Structure formats: C-alpha cells, structure tokens
C-alpha cells in the first residue's frame, strides 16, 4: 500500500479542528459570553467569537473534505475488495453529509443572530426577553444544535479510527478472503 500522508493529514487535521472548535465553542464561548457584563455585551461577544471561528471552521471542513476524497481515491481498491470497507465508507459519507448539513444550517441561523448586531442575550444561545422574535428563535435553535455538530464529528473520529484499524495487514488479508469467499 502506498503512503497517503497528505490526504490523511488533511482528513484528520480538518476533522480534528471541526470537532474540537465546535465543541470548544459550545462548552466555553457560548456560556462564557454571559460573563460580558450586560445582555447587549453578551450578544456582541458571542457574535465576535463565532465570526472569528467561521473562516477557520470553513478551512477545516475544506481540508477534511479534500483529505476524505484523497483517502477514498487511495483506498478505492480496498473499498471494492475488502469486506466491511465499503460499509464503513458509506457510514463515513452519511455522517459527513449530516455534519455538513447541520453546520450549514447553524451558520444560516448564526447569520440571523449576527445580523441583529449586539442582540441582548443571556448567553450566546439563550435569548433575553428583549431579543427580536426572529433572533430569539434562531438562538433557541442554535442552543439545540450546538451539541449536534460535535456529536456527529466525534462519531466521524470514531469511524475514522475504525477505518485505520481496517488497514492493518491482518485485517486486509481477512477482509479480502471474506469478500472473495462470499462472491464465489
């Protein structure tokens, strides 16, 4: 098997940043914004933090996707010939699509919140009673979704670990034999 250091690195580093950044923002930025001193300052701090994270997150997602395509191309023979690799690849693809969808939807909601400026807020995803209805609704949805992206991308980390285990020589041999015995 050839080395795929660049695509594997893009895949792994991009996924690590996507997972870790969204988890850190849910755990730290959103709650910490409530300590800004006032409801209006809370909204401003949360918006500033998420606006700084967005381009980094986009780059991380792009790196992960480029790395994923590289990994799929490099392993297309194993996907076709090794028992279990095709199923694992399908699971990774579905999880990636789900994470992309939730991330995109969250960004749309974040744009609504950000468009309101320094909207009064209890914390980034908890609207105050003075928040406009559309912004409050977006914040409430974001409160629900802030844990979904780290959950899905965390699941991707686990499936990626499993994929790495499938590349061990003994696993490749066994998977090739099992696939060949079922197709005969």
The percentage of residues in β strands lies in under 5%
The total domain count is 1
The counted number of beta strands is 2
Share in helix: over 70%
Name the descriptors:
single chain, 184 residues, mainly alpha, 2 strands
What does this structure look like?
This protein has 184 residues and is mainly α. It has one domain (5-178). It is 80% helix and 3% strand. The chain has seven helices and two strands. The protein has helices spanning 5-32, 39-74, 76-81, 85-115, 133-145, 148-165, 169-183; strands at 121-123, 126-127. A two-stranded antiparallel ribbon has the order 1-2. β1 (121-123) and β2 form a beta hairpin. α1 (5-32) packs antiparallel against α2 and α4 (85-115) runs antiparallel to α6 (148-165). The longest helix is centred in the first third of the chain and has 36 residues, at 39-74. The radius of gyration is 20 Å and the shape is elongated. The mean pLDDT is 89.
Give a brief rundown of this model.
With 184 residues, this protein is mostly helical. Helices cover 80% and strands 3% of the residues.
Set down the secondary structure blueprint.
Layout: H1 5-32, H2 39-74, H3 76-81, H4 85-115, E1 121-123, E2 126-127, H5 133-145, H6 148-165, H7 169-183
Antiparallel strand pairs: 1-2
């Amino acid at each position: 098997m050839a080395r795929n250091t660049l695509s594997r690195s893009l895949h792994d580093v991009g996924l690590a940043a996507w997972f870790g950044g969204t988890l850190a923002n849910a755990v730290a930025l959103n709650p910490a914004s409530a300590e800004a001193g006032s409801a209006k300052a809370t909204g401003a701090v949360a918006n500033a933090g998420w606006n700084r994270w967005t381009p980094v997150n986009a780059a991380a997602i792009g790196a992960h996707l480029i790395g994923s395509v590289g990994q799929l191309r490099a392993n297309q023979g194993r996907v076709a010939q090794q028992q279990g690799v095709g199923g694992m690849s399908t699971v990774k693809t579905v999880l990636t699509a789900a994470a992309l969808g939730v991330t995109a939807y969250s960004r749309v909601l974040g744009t609504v919140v950000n468009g309101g400026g320094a909207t009064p807020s209890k914390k980034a995803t908890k609207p105050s009673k003075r928040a406009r209805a559309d912004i409050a609704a977006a914040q409430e949805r974001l409160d629900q979704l802030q844990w979904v992206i780290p959950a899905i991308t965390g699941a991707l980390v686990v499936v990626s670990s499993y994929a790495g285990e499938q590349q061990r020589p003994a696993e490749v041999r066994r998977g090739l034999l099992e696939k060949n015995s079922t197709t005969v």
